[in-house]
Amino acid sequence: MMKSENDFLAERHGCIVCARIIDVLAVYAPDGRLVGCTATSPGGHCLKEERQPLAACDTHTEEEIDAAYKRWKSRNDEKSDHEQEDE
User: Distance between CA 18 and CA 3 in Å, rounded?
Assistant: First the structure.
């Protein structure tokens, strides 16, 4: 049976720069794909990431956020490489 409605989930994520907790409302399509998100905690915002919600504090500079995103992305790319090696 295929669902036809999006799922709205309240989630908690750590700021990718400093790990401060930010509450997020995430919307997922029936196939599990992230449709969008918004930070519900004051002083935080969601980053544009297609696979999962990512959040950052409004006080961080764009450079700090970009550097943290690159670290996060490289960590996840390493995990994907290890998963493919296991297959």
Answer: 37
Digit-by-digit pLDDT tens for the chain (87 residues) are 566 799 999 999 999 999 999 999 999 999 999 999 999 999 999 998 778 899 999 999 999 999 999 999 898 776 555 455 555
Model pTM score: 0.76
The H-or-E segment that residue 75 falls in is helix 62-86
Dist. CA 36–CA 40, nearest whole Å: 13
Which residues have a Cβ under 8 Å from the Cβ of 44 and sit 6 or more positions away? 15, 20, 22, 23, 24, 55, 56, 57, 58
35 — phi, psi (to 5°)? Answer: -95, -40
In one letter, which amino acid is 34?
A: L
Query: Is the alpha carbon torsion for 73, 74, 77, 78 positive or negative?
Result: negative
